[in-house]
Amino acid sequence: MKMKVCLSVIILFYGTGFAQNPKRLFIDTVQVSCHYLYEFQQDSTSRYSVKTQEMMLQIGKHCSKFVHNAVHLSDSLLMVFEGNSDPQTVFNKVWSMTEGAGLVHSYCSNYAYKNYPNKGDLLLTANMRGKHLKSIDCTQLSWKIVPDTVQEVAGYTCKMATTTFAGRNYVAWFTLEVPISEGPYKFSGLPGLIVKICDLQQQHKYSLLSIRKSKGIEPIILYDKNYISVTPKEYVDALNLKQAQLYNQIQQEDKIKPDSDESKARALTNLKSQNNFIEKY
Asked: What secondary structure letter does DSSP report for 241?
């Protein structure tokens, strides 16, 4: 029952992307790929609402891309099947090969690019109910490296640093053993890779799981769509509005028809609890 609701939601929000076959721009070549675990409290009022998602950071020579593992896998498979003219057939093939990668939480369905289109830019792109949004954040994080804080984290010797971003205060652990000024989501600017970062309220945390050097030519892709430019705050407002509209659709059984009242209640409860996106404005 629950899977039927989830599949309907995925078709509703991602199905148009399969039919449109947007142009891909190869903006860089992957040098290193970092696999992160993202743990977040989706309901700001409940410590029992923690969710986990696996994310991928692709680091190139000039820019980077941060995306959900399942989205990254889907994009790769779409390239393989792009010669098929039937969008539904393509969707069925991709779905059957990616369902084991886990469902993509609404907080993790975007693409985050650092140093693109210009050095210092933080570009976020997302599909919001058929509209393609992009937000460029030029915020320069101000880090304070805390002295005498050497500690082993995930097998790396790390130092602690603190910063403030989008309404939250963060503590990060970075390693000079990987001298790349990068990290998950929009976080970067330290003299080494960010291995772990968490806000002081313990509501949003990224932890490095593994690092892989590229063994061949692996492009970093940006989809060229008819984007609507919004500010970072407007992006968060649009995300919250999308959740509210989806809530109403399930409640009214408009295009999304749960198998039972129980499954409908679970879906509505879950959507209502999604009120704690990482950026606060």
From this structure: H
